[in-house]
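ugh ok fine here u go
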Amino acid sequence: MSALRVMWQAVLLQVALSRRNPEHTLILLIAPMQTTTMLALTVTSHRPDAVANAVLAPGLIGLWVAALDYAGRIVPEDRWAGRFTPMVAAPVSLGPVVAGRVAMVVLVGAAAFAESWLVAALGFGRVVAIADPALFALAVAVTCLATVGTATLLSAVLVVSRARDVLQNSLGYPFYILGGILVPVAALPGWLHPFSRVVFLSWSAELLRDAVRGDAGAWAGPVAAVLALGAAAMAAGLWLTGRYVDRSRREGMVEFA
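structure:
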């Protein structure tokens, strides 16, 4: 069975699991509230130039929450629910299965972009026009791909870590800042810029803002950076997942695999 077919079957599995336990959709309840708060601050401070930032930020936060809080605990929850052993025993690698299920969760998180736009238009009467819709669609697409890769890595890291809860609770705001989500990277202290550039969200945030303003210059470099960082995270996540499966078999952590 090809890796793409395995991933598609994993997407269908995650859809079936989400129907019984739709906690992944909580992202879509949080995004409108975040958008309302950010837009209220922007409007009352008379910063019309920052309205686009207030609309884009909840969408990016929704993706990161999907990667960290939901996709990152897929494997641990499989262990608790007794699904991990049959998956390890199946004649396919566990890595593409995790990636496929992560992709479905990230797709739900991506809907936060549309929600934020609707809240601004219907709730505040601020219609955010996108000057370059083709670049915006491309930026959202590569951001989703990079999020899937990063979430696959996070899933593997969290399952082998003994401090899973600590990591999940502490990796939110640092990435919102380093990723240029809350404020552009240019507004951060200069010594933080190198750290921001290894976070794919920083490139994604700039691409999205440039697409809204329509002043994107050389967009190929940022797009390549997002894809490269996402691919590196995906490769590391698949490798670490494979190592975890091998260790589980070697140490007798699974029953019949």
